[in-house]
Write a structure and sequence with these properties.
single chain; 2 domains; 12 strands; elongated
């Protein structure tokens, strides 16, 4: 039998004294609150990073392949479609889909307003999952069959230009070396809203064949190819493979390089989580130390009795470590129940809203991953347990004779 553990269980079944009871309860509550705050902080930051990252990727894919060119404008040199190196990229394990695109600057003109956009031309192979998820009205363009006059615009553009579903819209393309712009008439088939003002204010999507005609490229030239991966976490391994697969006349850039300002900002959020983690862990440590000190001070006469009966310092220390450990685990369990409960509540009910124009999302996003929960619990438990051993050393300074006279 583990005698220190048995004595600790018996002690935990007894009520504490009137003085120590509120202190211990507050300490257990503080430990639970620390665990809950850490879990919620991780969930919110990881959820926010995931939501914003997916929106950025939705506009530009994980990897873009373009002709190797120092010209960084939208008027870059085209590349041939159906190349064998592009076909080889499709066979890379981490790659989910590869599709061509054409981007071209344009002006949208209505009777009351004019607005500059980037027209992104795509074909029937384009992955519409992102835009379907963010579609607020209408439907996505149907690009199968004959050339389509449908266009997908953002809610921001629709408000600015006073457009709605089935509204006709005239788009003008400025051509180098030509005094007159080339125009095309489209019909608005759908309106999307991602909350990413920097992109919603700019991007419209239509049939790629219109832009091939405008550029006089025929049907064999495109601006480049977009590569979608199965998972963002595969980008680090997939990008070098793509780069090594394409020929020397092409260049590949990952989304983190192309949108470095957004990803640097998202990485800064990890610093906030680290600060919260350190502060809440310190709170847990302080409360664990308070618990074990209060338990020792409360039971000094008991320590005197045990020592007078021959118990050594290690034996007595184990009793209070076991007792404190039970209270620590109690705080951790309550903290997990509170933290995970609030995370699930927000995940399914979206009870805390946000200003989408300010934060890019309409509600506080959360991401609940078992690995985060396990890591937080094990980390806090290990550090708090080590901190628990320090005040337990006070036991060695308690003399049996003085302890028995202690009131």
């Amino acid at each position: 039998m583990n005698v220190p553990s048995y004595i600790a269980r018996r002690l935990s079944g007894r009520k504490e004294k009137q003085v120590t009871r509120p202190v211990i309860r507050v300490s257990v509550f503080s430990i639970a609150l620390s665990i809950a705050i850490i879990l919620i902080s991780f969930a919110i930051v990881r959820g926010f990073q995931k939501e914003v990252r997916e929106k950025i990727i939705g506009f530009g894919s994980h990897i873009q392949i373009r002709p190797f060119d120092t010209n960084m404008s939208l008027e870059q040199s085209p590349m041939n479609a159906g190349r064998e190196d592009i076909e080889a990229v499709k066979s890379i394990e981490e790659v989910e889909s590869v599709f061509p695109f054409i981007e071209k600057g344009a002006l949208v003109k209505t009777d009351s307003n004019i607005h500059g956009i980037v027209m992104k031309g795509v074909d029937a192979d384009f992955d519409w999952t992102f835009f379907k998820h963010n579609l607020v009205k209408g439907e996505i363009p149907q690009l199968t069959g004959d050339i389509s006059n449908e266009i997908l615009i953002s809610q921001m553009m629709a408000r600015l230009l006073h457009l709605d579903i089935d509204s006709p819209v005239r788009v003008y393309y400025i051509m180098q070396g030509e005094s007159q712009p080339r125009g095309r008439k489209y019909n608005v088939c759908g309106i999307y809203n991602t909350g990413m003002v920097e992109f919603d204010n700019v991007y419209a999507l239509s049939d790629m064949r219109h832009l091939q005609q405008i550029n006089r490229w025929g049907d064999s030239l495109v601006s480049g190819y977009e590569v979608m991966l199965h998972d963002f976490d595969q980008l680090e391994t997939a990008y070098p493979k793509v780069l090594n697969t394409i020929y020397y006349d092409l260049d590949a850039q990952d989304i983190m390089t192309r949108q470095i300002q957004f990803f640097d900002w998202l990485m800064l959020l990890d610093t906030n989580v680290l600060i919260i983690l350190v502060l809440m862990t310190l709170v847990a440590i302080i409360n664990v130390i308070s618990i074990i000190l209060m338990l020792i001070l409360e039971r000094i006469p008991m320590i005197g009795v045990l020592k007078s009966m021959g118990a050594n310092n290690a034996f007595v220390r184990k009793i209070f470590v076991w007792h404190s450990l039970q209270l620590l685990l109690k705080g951790i369990v309550f903290g997990n129940l509170a933290g995970i409960g609030l995370i699930l509540l927000q995940q399914f009910l979206h009870i805390i809203p946000l200003d989408q124009e300010m934060y890019y999302v309409s509600y506080v996003p959360v991401l609940l991953k078992p690995m985060y929960i396990i890591t937080v619990n094990l980390g806090v438990f290990a550090i708090a347990f080590l901190a628990m051993l320090l005040p337990a050393l006070i036991v060695r300074r308690i003399h049996p004779a003085k302890a028995l006279r202690h009131q």
